Amino acid sequence: MHLIVNPSASSVTARGRVVITKALAADHEVTVSETARRGHATRLAAAAAADGADVVVVLGGDGTLNEAANGLAGTTTALAAVPGGSTNVFARTLGLPDDPIEATGALLDALAYDSIQRIGLGSVNGRYFLFHVGIGFDAAVVAEVERRGSLKRWANHALFGWAAFDTWLRKYNRKRAHFSVRVEGKPTIDDGMFTVCLNTDPYTFIGTRPFTIAPEATLDRPLSIVTLRTLDAVPLLRILSSALGSGRHLRSSKYVSLHTDVTKVEIDGYGPVPHQVDGDYLGDVEHLELRYEPDALSLVVPRVSSR
Asked: What is the tens place of the pLDDT at every residue in 14-40?
């Protein structure tokens, strides 16, 4: 077992790391590495797989988990999540406790019962993603949050709320479409403002509440694509409010296009368009190609998970 720790992640503490390492080492041979920079977890995970590790455990946030998944995709080494970030979307989607020590107990239980599944991943321009890619408005929000990364540990949800409002009000053009969306076999959407491509649902969590936009997105099905064609205040607030409940109004709104079980989609920007992958801003590009990659990764799944 190889444990990758992001010491800068929001909820990683020295004490927690010691407790988790000791718990894992009780019945497993454990090697520990720390990430030192962006992209480091990809190289650490790939090296662990090449050295014959059975499992790579990640103690960190969604960004570190995504990097490790990119290092392990296509290998037989399994990925395991221990939540150490601020939101921990993927770990919570799997049904893991938000407390990292409790989550370690669930992980050890899963390993004892060999609860490992082969899952599909999404890819965007060759980069794998575990749960979603955001294109347009939400990626602009993530970019704004990352500019104030030092505040994220202490004011995560408040910071995102402020960044979303400030971006909507002043920093993202709401008067024109930003890109087109082409799903194989479907009419082109030429007025995209904000698109999310999901491998799982919910899209995120607001406190303890899931933000549900495509319940059809599960680890045993191809991708779902949700495109908003307006950012006007009234319809946008109705759509966002719906996502905090059942999401029924969101999926039936005339301003929303939903496609499920998608294996390929292309997005062409009317100029550079921001995009984020599993919560990490990756820059502005003019073209994105998204694909579903079946059976790409072995994943340790808690036995209480409904996914």
From this structure: 999 999 999 999 999 999 999 999 999
Strand partners, 80: 57
φ/ψ of residue 139, rounded to 5: -70, -35
Counting the structural domains of the chain, the total is 2
Quote the domain boundaries for residue 161. 128-293
Write down the pLDDT at residue 306.
42
Q: Are residues 58 and 154 in the same domain?
A: no
pTM: 0.93
216 and 84 belong to one structural domain: no
Which residue from 306, 213, 289, 279 is spatially nearest to 66, judged by alpha carbons?
279
Question: Angle CA(92)–CA(244)–CA(255) in degrees, nearest 5?
Answer: 120
Q: Are 153 and 103 part of one and the same domain? A: no
Q: At what angle do helices 137-146 and 156-166 cross, to 10 degrees?
A: 130
At 178, which CATH number? 2.60.200.40
Look up tokens 């495109």; give the residue: 227
- Listed in sequence order, the DSSP H helices in 124-253 are 137-146, 156-166, 233-243, 248-252
For residues 307 and 303, what is the distance between their CA atoms, to the nearest angstrom?
10
Q: Is residue 304 part of a domain?
A: no
| Residue 133 φ/ψ, nearest 5 degrees | -120, 135
C-alpha 205/C-alpha 244 separation (Å) is 9
| 45 shares a domain with 12 | yes
CB 228, CB 251: distance < 8 Å:
no
State whether residue 224 is helix, strand or coil.
Answer: strand
Residues of the chain with pLDDT under 70: 149-156, 304-307
